[in-house]
Design brief:
The protein has about 425 residues and is mainly beta. It has three domains: about 130 residues, Cupredoxins -  blue copper proteins (Immunoglobulin-like, Sandwich), CATH 2.60.40.420; about 100 residues, Cupredoxins -  blue copper proteins (Immunoglobulin-like), CATH 2.60.40.420; about 120 residues, Sandwich (Immunoglobulin-like), CATH 2.60.40. Helix content is about 5%, strand content about 45%. Strands 20, 21, 22, 24, 26, 27, 28 and 30 form an eight-stranded mixed beta sheet that branches. A six-stranded mixed beta sheet has the order 10-9-12-17-14-15, with no helix packed on it. Strands 11-19-18-13-16 form a five-stranded mixed beta sheet, with no helix packed on it. The longest helix is centred in the first third of the chain and has 6 residues. The protein is globular and about 60 Å long. About 50% of the residues are buried.
């Protein structure tokens, strides 16, 4: 079956419509030297797209003048394969002067969107934005704010501002801060002036999260963490090692980064697992390494998967409905934030220690050198899906593969007349 047929009901009318125009231009942000980058509707980050769970979202994207072409990938959303936005896998790059329409049913949670055509220069240059999906009946009294963290030219910003932003709130208010790490490395996040709870990770609500004090939560590249806190008198501050978001008072306290990190393996309480995750029947080894060789004819030291240099790496083949287990280990000498498109994986164990907290479901997982993980998933979203390091230069240097369902093929090519380059 052709992956291009894997779309939502084409007869269903959209309930949320968004038009985005991508441009390559000289970008000026407050407090940051002007640079040659990218915008969406003249902004970077691009407009925050908000919807309610179950709504059909339609986004029409026009590439005005991005010379290499562009796409939009809906990072963390388990949508139909044809909508994934990966050049050379699920579509051709959108050439200058052309349009492409993305349609998907909104899933509750915190996500983001970014280009998946030559993504390192395009994402670092600003071709990205936040996607927030509220519950069916969000509390109108709740204070809810996205904190998209991105470095422009080495300057860390929150929602495009290098200065400490302020979110209006009153003492006693409960505030949800949706932290989105769009950069290439893991980022510690902590709260000064108040305890906090990790309410969600990678768009999935956490079961019975307890209060956290004196610890930071690590948000890997591409990952998201929703923090909830009650605003004290004098305010509080969510901090990102070089940037911050003040809550309720611009004079809210600042504190150094805690040395201790919250361990999500034991955080919260056990709860129901998604159906089908209790009995894996197909197991894959996934060993991340590094060795010298040729990549696209270039000599160098490149990343490997199971000893193979891209494109001679394993493609993980599954059948629809199978229960799958990944045994991931990293012997490469560097940390890798691994991202699987179209699916969430359950963290079963790390370094042989079983998870004892709430079900930890991820689409972006921080794998330190020397670490190993056991992960489980259900093959319930057919198609051909990228699986790669979200340190984007690492993906370009060979650390990417695919999860492919038997019986599915793609009409798109990497390279070719459309110059598709998803890495």
């Amino acid at each position: 079956m052709d992956v291009a047929t894997l779309v939502p009901d084409p007869s269903r009318p959209a309930e949320v419509r968004v038009d985005l125009v991508a441009r390559a231009e000289r970008v000026t942000l407050p407090g940051i030297p002007a640079f040659d980058g990218f915008t969406l509707n003249g902004l970077t980050p691009g407009p925050t797209i908000r919807a309610r769970v179950g709504q059909l979202v339609e986004v029409r994207v026009t590439n005005q003048n991005v010379p290499d072409g562009m796409t939009l990938h809906w990072h963390g959303v388990d949508l139909p394969n044809a909508i994934d936005g990966v050049a050379g896998v699920t579509q051709d790059a959108i050439a200058p002067g052309h349009q492409h329409v993305y349609r998907f049913v909104a899933q509750q949670g915190t996500y983001w969107y970014h280009s998946h055509q030559v993504p390192h220069p395009q994402v670092s240059g600003g071709l990205l934005g936040a996607l927030i999906v509220d519950g069916a009946a969000p509390d109108p009294r709740a204070v809810d704010v996205a904190a998209l963290v991105h470095a422009y030219g080495g300057v860390r910003t929150v929602n495009g501002s290098r200065d400490a932003s302020v979110q209006a709130a009153s003492p006693g208010d409960t505030v949800r801060v949706r932290v989105i790490n769009t950069d290439n490395g893991p980022m510690p996040v902590w709260v000064s002036g108040a305890p906090y709870r990790v309410a969600a990770v990678d768009g999935r609500e956490w079961n019975r999260p307890g209060p956290v004090t004196g610890q930071a939560v690590l948000v890997t590249a591409g990952g998201r963490a929703d923090l909830e806190l009650v605003v004290p008198s004098g305010g509080a501050r969510v901090e990102f090692a070089g940037a911050s978001l003040a809550i309720g008072d611009q004079r809210a306290p600042r504190t150094p980064a805690p040395r201790a990190l919250l361990d999500l393996l034991s955080y919260g309480e056990p709860g129901p697992l998604p159906p089908g995750l209790d009995a894996p029947v197909r197991t894959f080894d996934y060993l991340i390494g590094r060795r010298f060789g040729l990549l696209d004819g270039r000599p160098g030291s490149w990343w490997t998967i199971n000893g193979g240099l891209y494109p001679n790496v394993p493609m993980f083949m599954v059948r629809t409905g199978e229960r799958v287990r990944f045994l991931v280990s990293n012997e490469s000498g560097e940390v890798h934030p691994m991202h699987l498109h179209g699916h969430h994986l359950l963290v079963v164990a790390r370094n042989g220690v079983r998870a004892t907290g709430a079900p930890w479901l991820v689409d972006s997982l921080n794998v330190e050198s020397g670490e190993s993980y056991e992960l489980s998933m259900v093959a319930d979203n057919p198609g051909i899906w990228m699986d790669h390091c979200h340190n984007l230069p690492h993906a370009r240097e060979g650390l990417m593969t695919h999860l492919a369902y038997e019986g599915y093929r793609t009409p798109y090519l990497v390279g070719g007349e459309h110059a598709n380059h998803p890495e």
